Structure to design on (471 residues):
């Protein structure tokens, strides 16, 4: 028996490769499938099954491309309906992988088709449970992503999840390893633990969702405090259900290289989105006017999916050699309208003598010095609402980054303002600054180091936490 967790940190996503006696299965594969194929080649193994725990909302699965490459059968749990061939398993159905067995446990709640897969060794002993988004380390999947109007509410799904956990997971032996689809940072739950695996016994002791409680109390616990899901979640779920263009086809479009003049002409189309994926600290020093900065060094795909429209073509500006990585990571969250990239990156644009734009970086102490003397100064804090509430500069207005593609969010900003933008450390504020500039507001500065730098100079600022002034 061989089990390998393949964890992708920028998406907090775990796929799994399971093998026995020359046969293998992959659970919840990402769209870029080469890692699974390479494992199978190295181990001289045939991928027999692709098990999907549910219709993922936070990434596009690699099920179709992997099935096309290997001939493997795609398996979903009960209540699954797709636009492509799959094996819809019955609850309790067993699948053979070499000397192992995989048993389907239908666990509706996160979605209707959500299912866990119980791995049994050659003696029939339960060894591991691949829980998808049904059960995480320290949390459970949110029940608000698969609602069907008045006929099926969030509370209905939460009630199903309560029953699923108690009927299918709690009865399992304590030694069974829990392998979830996500870890900390995922928006598929409220507060996932930092570990990427656990055991049934550990979760019985530490996971609030498995504590002894009434269904009513459980429903309240799992539904309270849910944030609005990212805009790309329903798009990805639909893609996973209906099918998609192959990743190879997307790469052919995205890898089209344009010289500076051709790129400039294409960029004149108002429908085009210019996406610059260089580091935030590099972007501020110079960029193609109108570009959106989302650096590959952060949670790139999540922010792209949360901010950029899916119905407009993308023109890419990357560090030379990072074009393919950029396309793959965008494809993971459902982007498919690629118009190519700037050959040679931003340096090509500069060398052609074409216009450039910049964002001024300033230190936090410069902001502190300007506050008492500048009546037009506006501080824009683009952190999330809970971050802002936990502590912020008194004068700052909170415009969370995820709202900034909506021009209405900038209604209170004007070119006559002296705008200072910050986040926690500097990554999000550069994204925000690029978005504000796209709206024609250019009199802005990015605070290097963000809130971390501001806190270090706390005695020079008036800091508020909620409504209480701390300094």
């Amino acid at each position: 028996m061989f089990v390998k967790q393949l964890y992708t940190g920028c998406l907090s996503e775990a796929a799994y490769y399971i093998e026995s006696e020359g046969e293998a299965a992959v659970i919840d594969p990402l769209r870029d499938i080469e890692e699974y194929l390479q494992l199978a080649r190295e181990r001289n193994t045939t991928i027999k099954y692709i098990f999907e725990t549910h219709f993922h909302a936070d990434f596009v699965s690699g099920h179709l491309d992997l099935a096309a490459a290997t001939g493997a059968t795609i398996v979903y749990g009960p209540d699954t309906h797709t636009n492509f061939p799959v094996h819809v398993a019955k609850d309790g159905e067993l699948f053979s992988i070499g000397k192992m067995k995989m048993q389907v446990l239908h666990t509706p709640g996160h979605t209707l088709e959500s299912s866990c897969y119980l791995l049994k060794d050659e003696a029939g002993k339960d060894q591991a449970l691949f829980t998808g988004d049904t059960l995480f380390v320290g949390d459970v999947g949110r029940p608000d992503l698969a609602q069907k109007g008045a006929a099926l509410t969030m509370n209905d799904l939460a009630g199903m999840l309560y029953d699923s956990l108690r009927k299918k997971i709690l009865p399992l032996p304590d030694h069974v390893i829990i392998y979830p689809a996500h870890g900390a940072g995922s928006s598929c739950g409220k507060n996932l633990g930092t570990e990427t695996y656990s055991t049934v016994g550990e979760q019985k002791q530490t996971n609030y969702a498995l504590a002894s409680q009434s269904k009513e109390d459980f429903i309240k616990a799992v539904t309270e405090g849910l944030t609005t899901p990212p805009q790309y979640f329903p798009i990805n779920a639909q893609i996973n259900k209906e099918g998609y263009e192959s990743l190879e086809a997307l790469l052919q479009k995205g890898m089209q290289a344009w010289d500076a003049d051709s790129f400039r002409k294409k960029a004149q189309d108002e429908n085009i989105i210019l996406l610059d994926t260089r580091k935030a600290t590099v972007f501020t020093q110079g960029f193609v006017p109108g570009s959106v900065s989302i650096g590959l060094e952060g949670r790139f795909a999540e922010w792209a999916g949360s901010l950029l429209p899916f119905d407009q073509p993308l023109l890419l500006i990357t560090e030379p050699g990072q074009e393919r990585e950029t396309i793959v990571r965008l494809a993971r969250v459902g982007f498919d309208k690629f118009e190519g990239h700037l050959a040679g990156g931003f340096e090509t644009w500069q060398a052609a003598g074409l216009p450039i734009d910049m964002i001024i970086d300033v230190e936090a102490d410069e902001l502190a010095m300007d506050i008492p003397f500048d009546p037009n100064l506006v501080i824009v804090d683009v952190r999330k609402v809970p971050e802002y509430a936990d502590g912020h500069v008194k004068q700052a207005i909170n415009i969370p980054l995820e709202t900034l593609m909506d021009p209405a969010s900038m209604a209170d900003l004007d070119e006559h303002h002296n705008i200072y933008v910050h986040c926690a450390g500097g990554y999000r504020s550069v994204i925000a600054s690029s978005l504000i500039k796209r709206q024609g507001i250019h009199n802005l500065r990015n605070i290097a180091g963000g809130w971390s730098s501001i806190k270090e100079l706390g005695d020079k600022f008036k800091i508020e936490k909620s409504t209480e002034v701390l300094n």
About this structure: The chain has a mean pLDDT of 94. The radius of gyration is 24 Å.
